[in-house]
Amino acid sequence: MRRTIFDLDVLRTFTTGVDLGSFARAADRLGRSTSAVSAQLKKLEQQAGTPIFQKSGRGLALTDAGETMLAYARRLLDLNDEAASAIHGIELEGWVRLGLQEDFGETLLPRILGQFARAHPKVRIEARVARNSELLERVTSGRLDLALAWNNSVLLPNSERVMEIPMSWVGPVNPDMVWRISGGEPLPLAALEAPCLMRTAAINALDRAGIAWRLAFISPSLGGLWAATAAGLGLTIRTPIGLPGTVRAIMPGENGLPVLPILGLDLHRADAEPSPVTARLASIILQALQDLSPMGAKAA
User: Contact 98/126 with Cβ under 8 angstroms?
Assistant: First the structure.
């Protein structure tokens, strides 16, 4: 039996298209024409020897074989990228201090730490998950080398905008539990303790729309916020990144809720010329964010 050798370039196109929800978007992201992407997907099905796509309405969905292929494609690409990193950065040693917003603690942090540790086992990472204000204070004072934080209009000297993400109203999975705008009681909100960028954005949007509101639940942590929202105590506002399965993003305009603004995501560095260790970790973060970017997000 002839051994099948999958083309990594084709697999990267395949996973990018699935992640973005559109192979036309994948073509733009990868700098290829749509016809070239179509040819790659056809090649992948030929290599697999079985259909990996099936029609679903006007679009395409993965077959069972396609779901299996996607899982293996991610593993193959991760190993390829780790091998390249290890070869080029095998001498990296030292330590790096990273800070992340709570939204990325469960979605982004394990991936970053795992990939970096496998490629650079001699480097020690200290990671801190915290609120925006603490992250910015720590990177400014030199107690963090890198910090990934939501933009709060504070301009730091060694920062870059990496992505712009639409904010969303978030409610429980059960649509019958979602509060609707009416002429009766004020809309209940679940929010983090102040200061909170998204709490302020929610209140401003409701005030501009002339919608009465009340703070029904205040939490010092994101875990408490998810629990309250899932229980139907009130609506909250976050981005589509890191939402647990107990809540859902409410579509724009649904239930009469006002449209929310775009939120910038910035990567802050403590030094203008970071160490090779810090620079390498920053590149891994940026790549992971591209893979994680939700629908509607725009790379800066």
Answer: yes
pLDDT per position as a tens digit, 51-78? 888 877 667 788 888 889 888 888 888 7
Instruction: Read off the amino acid at residue 232.
Output: G
Band (138; pLDDT cuts 50, 70, 90): very high
What are the two backbone dihedrals, phi and then psi, of residue 271, each rounded to the nearest 5 degrees? -125, 145
Q: Looking at the structure, tell me whether residues 139 and 279 fall in a common domain.
A: yes
Decide if 27 is inside a domain: yes
Residues 152 and 39 in one domain: no
Mean pLDDT of 21-41: 84
Same domain, 272 and 127: yes
Contact (Cβ atoms closer than 8 angstroms) between residue 230 and residue 173: yes
26: tokens are 């994948």
Domain that holds residue 140: 93-165+263-292
Q: For residue 247, which amino acid is it?
A: V
Q: Is the pLDDT of residue 258 over 60?
A: yes
Residues 177 and 238 in one domain: yes
Q: What angle do CA 238, 243, 245 make, to 5 degrees?
A: 145
What φ, ψ does residue 94 adopt, rounded to 5°? 120, -150
Each residue of 149-175: pLDDT tens digit?
998 777 777 888 888 888 999 999 877
